[in-house]
């Protein structure tokens, strides 16, 4: 039922293919009126009579897209795309494939979409985040969910719980109502129940705001005395006239006042139009800003999220919420919390399929709220009561729009700071692993330049942080139970001290790559230990012996080992050691550690080494 909010953009995005004919006239007429059920029946007749072509297959697929029947939509998009189609067809095909759970096939269609529309922001996002699905699936759970008892066998959505314990929602459960031609369900009405300690009373129709057309969803001001609600534009006598006296309406927003126990003074808003829709209202806590969804001129895609200032009975000029929130797809169902967090639904941002629910906090970054709130189907109309710490949303994952309760999961954000125990400086590139109480990996990261690694975990649980880094002893640190928020964990690592004998400084082997003399990253770690020892023992003088494997001629290996000795000495000198304190010589293959013919790769690596003899201590 939420598709009524996106029907106009659906037609616009489809582009109305030019292969209409006398055969498709009747079906096209139903399609143009958004009667996708009747349109699909007519297109199917053409298929059965073997009079179908690419145009018919596409229109048939789009009809099932409008009805949100993924199985049938996928079937006919597959037929339609046997011939080259416009970019948007591949995007919708991908959306329906996601809804069936076939993400690999969906990605293939998204790749085709991206190749045809490379400048589209949805294409760019897809190409920039190839592993988006894995990221979303591994994201920490923000909410636990359960279906609400308020749900019926008809479409239910738009649930809003006020601070005065009034629970409003929109439903097609009124069996006495005439049926809507698009889905054969009764028209939508606004209902109200009373919230008491987590339970809801039997819902009743809200007098005053329900009409003979679709009504809802609604938004309430903080004091509960003003309601903004969606209804069809016929309610405000705004519509376009077509052929045969047909009337074409839009979705409009209306305002009502609560006086003496009744909703009165129903007034259409000045932002309404017969040319476009405005719907799905939400009002800020201070009552000064109204958020809504619209496909009005200036929208970036189909429907966008907009806001407008409220000054008494007057509204300002609508402002588009911008490209961070809005995409070339559809965005709708905005909800603004008391602390200015916005939730909304979108089929344009990377998601699991259909409409997904996203949130935008004060930093302006859009975040998919993840599973279990989002699924492969349409998930939408999320609201959250901060005072009662409970949220509601709707999903058609069971085949019909039902209302679900979303309770926040308490999360803690461990911030691990890896430092050198000896110097108290940050250690970059350490492998930091967070383990739960069952020693299962919650996450693994490499520490950043400032030594920091971030995680998200559940509250009230004990975790273990394990840290490893070449040149340091491994560390294990306990994170005690926390009630939430950021927890800083210091992770000091002890450097491994070289072994100093009477004759030499023994480091981990300084290996070189085949046929090369450059000091490797791992080699630099070990040479830094030598530098530390020589700084602590200022009288020490070192002689470097550099060796090669036995591949190549003796003369060439002698030259290669000389270059390796020179590179080793140069590195140590570059760290501040006087050049008089370290010299080196290449010995080629004259002193092999592994005598072999032929040698394997491991034996060759052992032979390509440097040794550090103590000339003076």
Task: Write a structural description.
With 617 residues, this protein is an alpha+beta fold. 23% of the residues lie in helices and 31% in strands. It has twelve helices and 37 strands. Strands 2, 3, 4, 5 and 6 form a five-stranded antiparallel sheet that branches. Strands 13, 14, 15, 16 and 17 form a five-stranded antiparallel sheet that branches. Strand 23 and strand 24 (402-408) form a beta hairpin. Helix 7 (103-116) packs across helix 8 (121-128). The chain starts with 6 loop residues before the first helix and ends with a strand. Residues 7-18 have low confidence and may be disordered.
Which spans have pLDDT < 50 for at least 5 consecutive residues? Answer: 7-18
Oligomer category: single chain
* Biggest sheet descriptor: 5 strands, antiparallel
Inertia-based shape: elongated
Number of strands: 37
Cα gyration radius (Å): 34 Å
Mean pLDDT: 88
Structural class assignment: alpha+beta
- What percentage of the residues does DSSP assign to strands (E)? 25-35%
In whole angstroms, how far apart are the ends? Answer: 84 Å
The level of helicity is 10-25%
Number of separate helices: 12
Summary, kept brief:
By secondary structure, the protein is an alpha+beta fold.
Features:
alpha+beta; five-stranded antiparallel sheet; about 625 residues; 12 helices
Task: Please describe the topology of this protein.
Layout: H1 7-14, H2 25-32, H3 36-48, H4 54-67, H5 70-80, H6 87-99, H7 103-116, H8 121-128, H9 132-138, E1 143-147, E2 156-161, E3 166-171, E4 189-196, E5 199-200, E6 204-205, E7 215-220, E8 226-232, E9 240-241, E10 247-248, E11 251-259, E12 262-268, E13 278-283, E14 289-294, E15 304-311, E16 314-315, E17 319-320, E18 331-336, E19 342-346, E20 356-360, E21 366-368, E22 379-385, E23 390-395, E24 402-408, E25 411-420, E26 431-435, E27 441-446, E28 452-454, E29 457-458, E30 463-468, E31 475-479, E32 485-493, E33 499-500, E34 505-506, H10 521-536, E35 541-546, H11 554-574, E36 582-586, H12 601-607, E37 610-616
Parallel strand pairs: 25-32, 35-36
Antiparallel strand pairs: 1-24, 2-3, 3-4, 4-5, 4-6, 7-8, 8-11, 9-10, 11-12, 13-14, 14-15, 15-16, 15-17, 18-19, 19-20, 20-21, 22-23, 23-24, 25-28, 25-29, 26-27, 26-30, 30-31, 33-34, 35-37
């Amino acid at each position: 039922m939420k598709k009524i909010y996106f029907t106009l953009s659906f037609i616009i995005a489809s582009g109305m293919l030019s292969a209409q004919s006398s055969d498709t006239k009747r079906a096209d007429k139903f399609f143009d009126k958004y009667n996708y059920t009747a349109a699909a029946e007519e297109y199917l007749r053409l298929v059965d009579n073997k009079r179908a072509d690419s145009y018919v297959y596409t229109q048939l697929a789009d009809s099932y897209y409008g009805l949100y029947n993924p199985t049938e939509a996928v079937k006919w998009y597959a037929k339609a795309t046997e011939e080259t189609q416009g970019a948007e067809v591949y995007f919708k095909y991908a959306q329906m494939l996601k809804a069936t759970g076939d993400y690999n096939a969906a990605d293939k269609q998204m790749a085709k979409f991206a190749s045809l529309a490379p400048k589209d922001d949805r294409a760019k996002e897809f190409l920039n985040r190839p592993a988006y699905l894995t990221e979303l699936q591994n994201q920490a759970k923000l909410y636990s969910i359960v279906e609400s008892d308020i749900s019926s066998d008809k479409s239910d959505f738009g649930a809003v719980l006020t601070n005065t314990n009034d629970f409003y929602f929109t439903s097609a459960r009124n069996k006495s109502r005439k049926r809507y031609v698009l889905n054969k369900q009764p028209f939508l009405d606004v209902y109200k129940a009373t919230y008491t300690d987590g339970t809801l009373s039997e819902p009743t129709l809200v007098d005053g705001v329900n009409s003979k057309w679709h009504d809802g969803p609604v938004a309430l001001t903080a004091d509960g005395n003003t309601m903004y609600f969606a209804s069809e534009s016929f309610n405000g006598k705004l519509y376009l006239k077509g052929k045969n006296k047909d009337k074409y309406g839009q979705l409009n927003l209306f305002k009502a006042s609560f006086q003496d126990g009744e909703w009165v003074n129903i007034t259409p808003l000045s932002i309404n139009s017969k040319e476009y829709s405005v719907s799905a209202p939400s009002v800020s806590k201070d009552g000064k800003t109204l958020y809504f969804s619209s496909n009005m001129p200036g929208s970036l895609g189909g429907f966008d999220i907009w806001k407008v200032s409220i000054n008494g009975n007057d509204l300002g000029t609508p402002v588009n919420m911008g490209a961070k929130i809005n995409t070339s797809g559809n965005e709708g169902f905005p909800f603004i919390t008391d602390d200015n967090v916005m939730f909304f639904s979108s089929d344009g941002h990377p998601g699991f399929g259909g409409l997904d629910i996203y949130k935008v906090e004060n930093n302006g970054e859009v975040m998919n709220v993840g599973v279990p709130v989002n699924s492969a189907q349409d998930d939408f109309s999320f609201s959250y009561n901060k005072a009662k710490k409970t949220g509601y949303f709707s999903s058609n994952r069971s085949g019909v729009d039902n209302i679900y309760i979303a309770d926040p999961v308490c999360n803690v954000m461990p911030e691990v700071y890896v430092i050198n125990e000896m110097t108290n400086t940050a250690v970059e590139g350490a492998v930091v692993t967070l383990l739960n109480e069952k020693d299962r990996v919650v996450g693994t990261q490499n520490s950043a330049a400032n030594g920091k690694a971030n995680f998200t975990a559940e509250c009230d649980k004990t975790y273990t942080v394990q840290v490893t880094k070449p040149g340091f002893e491994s560390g294990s640190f306990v994170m005690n139970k926390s009630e939430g928020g950021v927890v800083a964990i210091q992770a000091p690592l002890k450097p491994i001290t070289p072994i100093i004998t009477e004759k030499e400084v023994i480091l981990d082997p300084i290996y070189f790559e085949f046929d090369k003399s450059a000091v490797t990253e791992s080699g630099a770690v070990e040479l830094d230990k030598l530098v530390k020892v020589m700084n602590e023992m200022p009288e020490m003088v070192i002689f470097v012996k550099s060796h090669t494997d036995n591949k190549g001629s003796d003369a060439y290996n002698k030259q290669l080992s000389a270059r390796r000795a020179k590179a080793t000495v140069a590195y140590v000198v570059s760290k501040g050691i006087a050049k008089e304190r370290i010299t080196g010589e290449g010995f080629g293959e004259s002193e092999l550690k592994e005598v072999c013919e032929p040698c394997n790769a491991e034996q060759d690596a052992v032979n390509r080494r440097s040794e550090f003899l103590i000339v003076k201590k």
